[in-house]
Write a structure and sequence with these properties.
two-stranded antiparallel sheet; 7-stranded mixed beta sheet; about 190 residues; alpha/beta; single chain; binds S-adenosylmethionine
Length: about 190
């Protein structure tokens, strides 16, 4: 995971005016009032997915595409959903230019997951939800892991949801702060 972080040029995913700060360990603004997550948080969430390389991962909240680029090096396939078309199209361009051929960028409400392509081995949500959307649990493969910030608008708790033989088991990781997940199974606009 650290090798993936070292390889992916974060500066390619931030606006020109923020490039000098691209390696700062903090979230930075991107278009449409959204953010590219702090590198530490990208690393932590990726680590909590426990990837071995064979997985299909659903990401909700493409944003700049940076997290998807990290995932693309560590799993078989990434499906990433973004609700703001401008961001999705921008991310797609950068991901293609970096040769991330195993990433599919979709535009839509990711709070409902992606039923057409379910189940997923792993799901990562990079925006804060009021609670875990039940649709995402339903789309998680047996043995799979879902990493998601849940709670109030600010802050949230990073949670790992596992689909086990005993059912759905949720554990807290740490407090965190993300822009809101907006959609039918999340916050209203
Ligand atoms: N993973 C991103 C990256 O690497 O740059 C950072 C994501 S940013 C913190 C959260 C993103 O979630 C925003 O781009 C926002 O538009 C998106 N988002 C919010 N609600 C969404 C939804 N229901 N479906 C898909 N994307 C959503």
């Amino acid at each position: 995971m650290l090798a993936a972080i070292a390889e992916v040029p974060r500066w390619r995913f931030v606006p020109a005016e923020s490039r000098a700060e691209a390696w700062a360990d903090r979230a930075l603004p991107i278009a449409a009032g959204q953010t590219i997550s702090q590198p530490y948080m990208v690393a932590l969430m990726t680590q909590e997915l426990v990837l071995v390389g064979t997985e299909t991962v659903l990401e909700i909240g493409t944003g700049s595409g940076y997290q998807a680029a990290i995932l693309s090096r560590l799993c078989r396939r990434v499906v990433t959903i973004e609700r703001i078309p401008e961001l999705s199209l921008g991310a797609k361009q950068v991901l293609e230019s970096l040769g991330c051929t195993n990433v599919e960028c979709l535009i839509g409400d990711g709070s409902l997951g992606c039923a057409e392509q379910a189940p997923f081995d792993r799901i990562i949500v990079t925006a804060g939800a009021p609670k875990v959307p039940p649709q995402l649990c339903e789309q998680l493969e047996f043995g799979g892991r879902l990493v998601i910030p849940t709670g109030t608008h600010q802050p949230q708790m990073l949670q790992v949801v596992m689909h086990t033989a005993q059912g759905i088991v949720t554990t807290d990781v740490c407090p965190c702060s993300f822009v809101p997940l907006i959609g039918a199974a999340a916050w209203s606009e």
